[in-house]
Structure formats: C-alpha cells, structure tokens
Write a structure and sequence with these properties.
By secondary structure, this protein is α+β, with helices and mostly antiparallel strands. The chain is about 45% helix and about 20% strand. The protein has 12 helices and 8 strands.
Length: about 260
C-alpha cells in the first residue's frame, strides 16, 4: 500500500473517531451550523436543546435518518421558528424520515414579516356560534363566538388579512369537510398536532390557503408551499460529514486505488 494511501486512511480514521457517537451528540455538534442559519435574536444552543427535548418527547424521531432530522432543523433555523410547545413548527416522524410541519403560530409569524400585510388572523367556528360572511366586491365576516370550543363541535374556519393601502379585506373560509380533506393528505394525519391540536391545525390550514393570495416575499411563500415536506439538504461538507455513514475505510480507499480513482 502506498504511503499516500496510508496517510489518507489515517486521516479518515481520525475523522471517524472524532465523529459524534449518538444522535444527541450529533445534534449538539450541529450548533455551529445552526448558528449560521439562525437570525441574531435566536441562539444555536437553544435550538439544539429544543431539538433534544423534542427527541426525548418523541422516541420515533430517533428511528429516523439523521440527515432528514438535521434538514428539518436547518430549515426551522433559517425560518427563525422554534419546534415544540410554542406551536411555531413540529418535527414529524414519517416512514423513517423527519418532516417539518408549520404550526398556526409559525404561519402567522411568517406572514407578519411581510411589509405589505397590515394584519392577519384566523379563527374557528363552532356549533352554536353566530357566523355569517359574504364575498364579492365588499367582503365581510361577522362572528359571535359561543361557549362550545370542543374539537368535535368545530364546523368551519376562516382567515382574514388586511393589506396595507387597501380597504378591502381578503377572506378565506373552509368548512370542516374541506379541512379534513387536507388533513387526509398530510403525512402526519394520524399523529402529532393534527391529533393533539386539531383546531390550531385547522386554523393554519385556512390561513395557508389565504396565503396564496397575499403579497409575500418569495422565500416566505416558498417555505409555506413546502410545508410538511422532507428537507434532507445540507449547506456544507462539514455538516454532511457529521452524519456520514462509513464502512471499512481501508476497503473503500483500496477500492479507489484498484479502480484507478485514487491518486497514489
């Protein structure tokens, strides 16, 4: 074996030895990469700790590919949203992959960043509420809530946005059947926030539909359309190497040498 090949094997073996041994260590090792994506008011250490908390709360995340987990964490960092109890977004395990699912509050946060949107909100309508709306050239929503707020009593949701410089509100209304049709196509329809926070997800659903008509920045609009998808991408070889799955280093390098791919 050539001296150059032995040197490359030694270097690669050292890199493998230094690689974090478990998923928790990997997440903490990713803090510097998360810091590059996070806005200034958010800490990479806090984001890593939040990820660890979600990992401990949902053991199914530990069965997913580390690549997809970090892809979702990186996207959440880029958006400036925190997974977990705040309801900004959720890490959802699905068939061995992690998808990032926006929550209602996360959707509100993204839309509120548009300098062309004055205000936006969404509400649920329950049996017993007084609710009327009209569309057309003079759209209007009138809603007087009642006392019933059980998920089973939810019959509709609506979202309203006021655009700066316009006196005409933009309105979207969906009945429960339409909401459930969207839920039926979701990856995590039987677990996660669709089960624990149905009303919030229903409000998010109608708000997401309204967002298609709002003047949003291209990156925000793209993030909303990619909601509930797997994002296993990386922004550097350093990041990808943390999750690299390696076999026998000497066998890999020797294979390159025999095929002529290695420079010896």
């Amino acid at each position: 074996m050539s001296t150059d090949l032995k040197g490359r094997l030694k270097e690669k073996a050292g890199a493998v030895a230094e690689r974090p041994k478990n998923l928790a260590d990997q997440i903490m090792a990713l803090a510097p990469q998360l810091a590059k994506a996070l806005p200034r008011h958010m800490s990479s250490e806090r984001m890593a700790r939040i990820a660890l908390t979600e990992f401990r709360k949902n053991p199914e995340l530990g069965k997913c590919t580390p690549h997809s987990l970090f892809g979702s964490l990186l996207t959440a960092s880029q958006l400036g949203l925190e997974p977990g109890p705040l309801g900004h977004c959720y890490l959802i395990p699905y068939k061995g992959q992690v998808s990032l699912q926006l929550g209602y509050r996360g959707m509100l946060e993204l839309v509120s960043r548009s300098d062309k949107v004055d205000s936006v909100y969404a509400y649920a309508v329950y049996k017993g509420d007084e609710f009327t709306y009209k569309l057309g050239t003079d759209p209007l929503v009138e809603h007087i809530p009642g006392a019933n707020t059980d998920d089973d009593a939810l019959i509709a949701v609506y979202a309203v946005a006021h655009i700066k410089g316009s006196t005409i509100p933009r309105i979207e209304v969906m009945n429960r059947k339409q909401v459930d049709a969207i839920r039926a196509r979701a990856q995590a329809r039987s677990n996660g926030p669709w089960v624990t926070d149905y009303a919030e997800m229903a409000r998010k659903t109608v708000l997401k539909k309204l967002c298609k008509t709002l003047p949003l920045a291209a990156e925000i609009a793209l993030s909303i359309t990619q909601d509930d998808t797997i994002r296993p991408s990386f922004d550097s070889e350093e990041t990808a190497s943390i999750f690299e799955i390696t076999g026998d280093a000497e066998q890999q390098e020797a294979g390159k040498e025999e095929s002529g791919d290695g420079k010896v």
